Amino acid sequence: MQPPASEALSGLAPSPDRERATAAPAVASAVAAEPGSFRDRNGAVFYRDGEILRGISAKALANWERLAATPFFQEFTAQGSIVRTERLPDDEARSFGDWAAVLRHEKVPFISYPYEWTFGMLKDAALLHLDLMQAALGAGLILKDSSAYNIQWRGAQPVFIDIPSFEVLGKGEPWVGYRQFCELFLYPLFLQAYKGVDYRPWLRGQIDGIPAGSLRPLLSARDLIRPGVLLHVLAQDSLQRRYAGKPQNVRSSIAKAGFDKQLIVRNVEGLRKIVTGLQPGGSKTVWADYDRTHSYDQAEFEAKCAFVREASRHRRWRMAWDLGCNTGTFSRLIAEQADHVVSMDGDWMAIEHLYQAQQNRPDRQKILPLVVNLSDPSPAQGWRGLERRSLPERGRPELTLCLALIHHIVISANIPMRDFIGWLAGLGTSLVIEFVSRSDEMVQTLLANKDDQYGDYQQDRFEACLAEHYRIRADQSLKGGKRHIYFCTPKSEP
Amino acid sequence: MHSIGAYAFRLVMAGLIVGMSTRTASAYLDPGTGSIILQVLLGGVAGLLLAGKLYWHRLMIMLGIRREEEVASTSNAHQDVQIDAATRK
Q1: B53, closest residue in chain A (CA to CA)
Q2: Does the structure's ipTM exceed the value 0.90?
Q3: pLDDT at B30
Q4: Interchain proximity B53–A258, CB inside 8 Å
Q5: Is A238 within 8 Å of chain B by CB?
Q6: CA A468, A329, A306, A298: dihedral to nearest 10 degrees?
């Protein structure tokens, strides 16, 4: 049910899964349970030596065998839309306890959550989910849940990771995950498309998504005629209220009355049509046109690109982060030397721009765009605070890019410069960082209406902070001395 | 199918469907009773026919043409409800 992490776990507090795993008689000692994998008792994710494994029950094994034989599963896997999965040989699987079988999954480069995705990403994830529903229904299967967390990214390509979610569809059974689809995909998209409201804080605030009853009060009379609102929101909320707290379950009733798979197919088709038509509402954000209006002239911009490219050639990087990536110009430069790049910016429109632009590029599978406000990054949360991980817990980079960002961190977000450099150093990575001086018009704009309490915001103080943690390998003045760029490696490295 | 009239019809049907039977859910995820009923209405023409069929029993009861026991005997509605209600105590 929950995504496997990109990194093997270490030092995590005990969790229900871990306790169960360690209580089992024959579990290998090097196995660590994924603390977010507990909701569905038919399986659990755990890690061994960087491998992502999943123990499954006899019931889940029967479903897996049926799924693995379907042409659609093989096709979606071949095109990268379903995570590559294989079954461990039985003699190897037995060492993991009393599971009926153990599956091994391909590793996703970096785990992300729907509250870090842009509208376009959530929409494409929803469409992939509906595609899989349609294909599964055609093969007599169904996705038993509809968690948006079951979709992860290989760069800008969505990948479905929750294999045991595919189940044989019983005769007359409804789509159990329909409500969840609404709460974790449809309503967040509606919120942005119809009301111009950012859904990310809502999804970050509630792990199970947005209930119909929370969305309904926001809807105006005009919204009622928008596609999907009347039935999927209003009628659903009314029916949920009507039947709330009553000991009634209609599944056998509708099965006897002749509920059929075709009804689910129609619903899925209808949802596909609605989701396809959704466009993000709200006005353009501040930096959306930044890559066309940045404050560099062409020659200076090329000098900056050349510095970043040269620094990135220092070595090959497994993973790089581009913090404050804007529309990803420099992410693409470092992607030439990195297996994977996670590109983060607080401006969802800039990230949307990057995401859409990546769709037709050869490095589509290398760059993962995420909406992250570094001064308030995604926390660890969920059950025991372990179900969803904080940003650095999901896998550290080897190279961090931090261009035209420090003035936003220190002046806009009021984070002390030394503190920020200390945080960067804690990542333990090489660093390309740009200092934007007080003479730069961007800094002057930020200071225009603020008390200047940033006495430490000086280039010599900045270099002193860097020198505490890093060895400066190269540096260069940019923009006529208004900016300065540095390439540093951790002092701990030779 | 997507005209306001069709929406309104399905909405009215949604409001009318009551008194369903019960069974312990076999999924770890609660699909929500209201959300299951709605799926009948979202199932296109076949769904509307099914909604009509389900509602027909209620109409018969309301008009006094059929007694509630007859409906129960065809769907085990009351028996199921009682069992479920008892196990929840």
Answers
A1: A257
A2: no
A3: 81
A4: yes
A5: yes
A6: -120
